[in-house]
């Protein structure tokens, strides 16, 4: 799984990491037993402080979403993660708002966005 941080979102980096792991599990991209990058490796990859990654992992361990095995690494725990509908809607609304804002800054309107998304959907069905 590739982690990406958005410094413009206003959401703390550790929270973005937590959300990406939770959504990754809920979507089936991360499965029970999958190993996550080490704290150091992920901090270097994302260019953030080690404490940021440690905080995210620690919170997920407290919620029994992650398990850390000394000397072996950090793994997805055997727990089912479901994202509440209102949280999913809020996340999607935020993504759409940001997407539309960026697109309008480049002169694209809503019809342009819908056309492009529909073309991508068609291409996905052909694969």
SSE order: HEHHEEHH
**Helix and strand composition category:** mainly alpha
Distance between the termini: 21 Å
Task: Give the count of structural domains.
Answer: 2
CATH fold call of the largest domain? Arc Repressor Mutant, subunit A
CATH homologous superfamily of the largest domain - what is it? Winged helix-like DNA-binding domain superfamily/Winged helix DNA-binding domain
Helix/strand layout:
Elements: H1 13-26, E1 35-36, H2 39-46, H3 50-62, E2 66-69, E3 73-76, H4 85-105, H5 110-126
Antiparallel strand pairs: 1-3, 2-3
Helix pairs in contact: 1-3, 2-3
Describe the structure.
It is globular and about 50 Å long. The relative contact order is 0.11. Strand 2 (66-69) and strand 3 (73-76) form a beta hairpin. It is 57% helix and 8% strand. It has 127 residues and is mainly alpha-helical. It has two domains: 13-76, Winged helix-like DNA-binding domain superfamily/Winged helix DNA-binding domain (Arc Repressor Mutant, subunit A); 85-126.
Annotation keywords:
3 strands; globular; 8% strand; Arc Repressor Mutant, subunit A; mainly alpha; 5 helices; 127 residues; three-stranded antiparallel β-sheet; 2 domains
């Amino acid at each position: 799984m590739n982690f990406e941080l958005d410094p413009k979102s206003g959401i703390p980096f550790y929270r973005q990491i937590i959300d990406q792991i939770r959504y990754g599990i809920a979507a089936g991209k991360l499965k029970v037993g999958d190993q996550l990058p080490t704290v150091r490796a992920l901090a270097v990859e994302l260019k953030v402080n080690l404490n940021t990654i440690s905080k995210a992992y620690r919170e997920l361990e407290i919620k029994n979403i992650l398990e850390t095995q000394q000397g072996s690494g950090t793994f997805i725990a055997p727990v089912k993660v479901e994202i509440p509908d209102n949280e999913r809607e809020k996340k999607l609304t935020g993504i759409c708002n940001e997407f539309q804002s960026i697109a309008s800054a480049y002169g694209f309107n809503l019809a342009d966005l819908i056309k492009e998304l529909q073309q991508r959907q068609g291409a996905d069905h052909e694969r």
